[in-house]
Amino acid sequence: MNYYNVGKIVGTHGLKGEVKVVAVTDFPEDRFRPGSRLYVGPERSEVTVQSGRPFKQFWLVVFDQVSDIDQAEQLKGQEIVIAEADQGELPDGVYYYKDLLGLEVVDDETGEKIGKLTDIQAPGANDIWEVTDLEGKSFWIPYIDDVVKQVDLAGGQVRVVLMEGLR
Description:
By secondary structure, the protein is mainly beta. The chain contains three helices and twelve strands; from the N terminus they run ββαβββαβαββββββ. The longest helix is centred in the middle third of the chain and has 6 residues.
């Protein structure tokens, strides 16, 4: 089974087992909602979210299996992951990074193969995608409608229009 990182426990909050989580998911409201099944640490211990709420730059999360600060302290530094089967469906036009990486990048106007999508970063307002061209050189494109015209997961390609200066 495949697992995907959704956060890291960086501390505790209060005395009743609440933990501070740095979320590394685009869907923290879904991942840390009551009833969500997640896995903690390298041994992938299953936990169920009792409650989760945003707090400053963190999420404060309570797991059904953790009832006091001593148990919560044991979790500090642990990664939180979700099983692929528990990820759920996404709305149209929204994609998991794992599904995009490796797609062939094609010029929408000429049909020319440009390269492969090799990395995705989320620095702010929109994601940026790293494309490695056929000669092994990489460049970044913004994930905006003016550049990314079509994502075809079944066909294994992304159709783009490279504005001047992107390459």
